[in-house]
Design brief:
The protein has 214 residues and is mainly beta. It contains two helices and 16 strands. A hairpin with a 2-residue loop joins strand 7 and strand 8.
Amino acid sequence: MRLAVRVATALAAATIGGAAHSQDAERMLAGDYVATGADGVSCHFTLSYADDVGGEVEAGAGCEGALGPINDAARWSSDGAGGFRLFNALRKPVAQAIEDEAGLTLRVGERDFALAGPPSPQLTETERAAGSWLLYDKSAPTRPLCRLSLTVNGGVAVSQCSRRWRNLQGAKWQVIPGGVALTPRRSPTVRLLWRDAATLAPDAASWAMVKAAQ
């Protein structure tokens, strides 16, 4: 028999900055989860989040036995470390999801259960390319020649550039198959292709762009 519990709650008051950070974490964690024990018994539950009501928990099929406390979950919140906590209506914790190198584990009482969650959101090609970049000469990869910021609306801003690269200020860029096209204001368009997950470079060129650490 399907068991369902849905209780809307508001998160406790926090500082403005802390509240915004918490809301972002909760939006990323919301989704469908399945906790599975060594005996193969599985419990399905859903975490949802909205700014005006906070976190909600809906327990579904299989939440019985050692996983029964999930049925009492009324709300949830991020733990700030990639996991989350489930609470009952009396604000007492009933379970905690812990993230480590192996993935997510759901701890209920003294027992741990493997936890499968929603897939990570996939970036669009524009989102993948946008952001801060460092331009290097391949012969001196530890000394950036220019710092670039590619905006999601196709703009380019630069700073700390050597003379050769200053004309990239105000350039435009767009996604092309396999990479991006960069068009300076007074120079021909350059095609940069993905060389790995964080490197863009033209064919047969002496320079490359590497995504800066965020």
